Every structure is written in structure tokens, then in C-alpha cells.
Amino acid sequence: METTINKLMEYRPARGEMDKLISFGVNGGPDAPISFKTILDAFGVNFALYALRTVEDREEMRAFAIWCADQVQHLTRDKDKRVSASACNAVYIARHNRSAALAAHQAASYFVRTMEACAERDARLENRDWRPDSLTARDDARELLTEQFRSTFLAA
User: Fold this and answer.
1) In the chain, domain spans
2) Total-model pTM
3) CA 107 to CA 102: how far, in whole Å?
4) Which residues are within 8 A (CB) of 62 and not within 5 positions of it... i.e. 6 or more apart?
């Protein structure tokens, strides 16, 4: 799967990503293809998911969104409202957003938020500082998303 610098620029990425994209464009020009593997390696999973909107919707995108939702579905009835709200949003977006690319990006975002909220809730229940747990949960969630992104979109 590939896209181009120009297609990515159409979606107005954040300033940091934009500067990095411009440096990529110097090598092959703004219409040269850039692989999603390169995007994932250079920018991380969040931007790789953001970049999905530059290609046509594919079944894998919806499958990725559903995977994110499935990981947190059991938390939709959690007593902590922040946890249940994030989980519900992930499930709803994965199943109802018309754009599969947007669903994948947003469901992944809510997946990470849900994992952070769970870490905060657990720390609060155990009367300990939640910030380090929340950051670890975010990193763990992004690592899991990166692995899933690779197996869903970059597998040969």
C-alpha cells in the first residue's frame, strides 16, 4: 500500500509531520510513491493510521477498526465512566463510521484512551500515582497497535 506526499499534504498534517514530509519529498518529489511501511517507521502508528485516509477504503481498514473495538468491548459496561465512554466510542466508530480509514484511525485513538483510563482507574483504586501507569499503558497500547498495523496492512 502506498500514497504520496501531495496526498498526505491535502489532509493538512500537523506542523512536525509536515516538515518531515517535505524532507521526504526532496528525494523523489511530491508525487513519488511512499510506502506505508516507510510512514510507519518514520512517523509512528498514529500518523500511519491518519495517512490511511489518502487511499481508497479497504476491508483491512474496517477489520483493523473492529479489532480495536473488540479489544475494549468488554469495558463498555465498566463502572468508571471515562473507561466505559472511551470503549463505547471505539466500538461505535468501528462499526458505524462510513469511512473505513477514518474508523480505523479513530477507533485506535479511543483504544489508546481506554487503556490510559483503565490504568488511571486501577491506580486510583490502589491509591497510587496514576501518571506513570497511564504513560506505560499508552506506550503498551501504541506498541500493540503498531504490531497489529504491521500484520494487517504490511503483511506480504
Assistant:
1) 2-54, 59-154
2) 0.78
3) 8
4) 94, 100, 103, 104
